[in-house]
Amino acid sequence: VKANGRGWFRLFESGMDDELQGRRKLEHDLRHALQHDELILHFQPLVDSNFRILAFEALVRWMHPTLGLVMPAQFIPLAEECGLIIPLGEWVMQAACTAAAGWSQPCRIAVNLSPAQILRTDLPTTIANILIKTGLPPDRLELEITEGVLMDNTDAAIKTLTELRELGTRLVLDDFGTGYSSLSYLQRFAFDKLKVDRSFVQRLASDSGSRAIIMAIIALSRSLDLEVTAEGVETEEQFRLLGATGCQEFQGYLIGRPMPHDEVENFLRNSSPL
Ligand code: C2E
Ligand code: CA
Ligand code: CA
Ligand code: CA
């Protein structure tokens, strides 16, 4: 079997299309990137209606030696497929908590979690260790989760999310409204907050249907005692309309673009204190 192995491999290799070869190269490069500090975080502010900073969301980028700055859409799906999302996610968590623990204001840090991370039973221990090591108080960490993983793996997800709650971290349902959204999930999994997806915010001003949906989501969330963030806020009009419907937290280019870490302190200094 071993002797044939190489032959099979060669056959496989010669039959591969360019796309597959490209992916293999990318996977190889990403593995290398993890070991050679090529990943960086950018931070995007979340503010209240008075533009006071509540949190920053950590968003990963890859400083590729030849391609330049690569955005997450171009490598997170690949990392999820090949399992690299586990070490990558741990790197993000460590880097994000370290950064936030050093800020001059106690704002929160939001970190995105992939489904594969949630399904690892050791995730709560990993996060607990990072919190201890960095000294970041658990309630300053917000974990952003998309709803797909909750639908498909309900029992496993409930167990992990319960443990994460017991640690004292905050749970956020991300991209709300894009999937099979059900507000019953929010109660069942004890989320603290939901993020209304950018697509609704974009259609807010032009489409009365989207406006009605957002208003209903915000009203329901508030009656369930959930916080609501609107993401992708780009215009004053969106900001105003969202505020009028009772939304209390805002994120988007209008407020601030994702910025490298060395700009965060400046941004904090120039904003009004909480
Ligand atoms: P997301 O969690 O929904 O993050 C918001 C995305 O919207 C970010 O894109 C952000 O730069 C972008 N954005 C923010 N405000 C605006 C706006 O006003 N207008 C527009 N058009 N876009 C806005 P980014 O940084 O390219 O990240 C894309 C996605 O990649 C994220 O979507 C998230 O799902 C994923 N991602 C990023 N970092 C990580 C990570 O560390 N771990 C995991 N698992 N996923 C990550
Ligand atoms: Ca997010
Ligand atoms: Ca989102
Ligand atoms: Ca998204």
From TrEMBL:
Residues 23-272 form the EAL domain. This is EAL domain-containing protein. It comes from Lichenicoccus roseus. The lineage of its organism: Bacteria, Pseudomonadati, Pseudomonadota, Alphaproteobacteria, Acetobacterales. The chain holds residues 518 to 791 of 810 of the full protein.
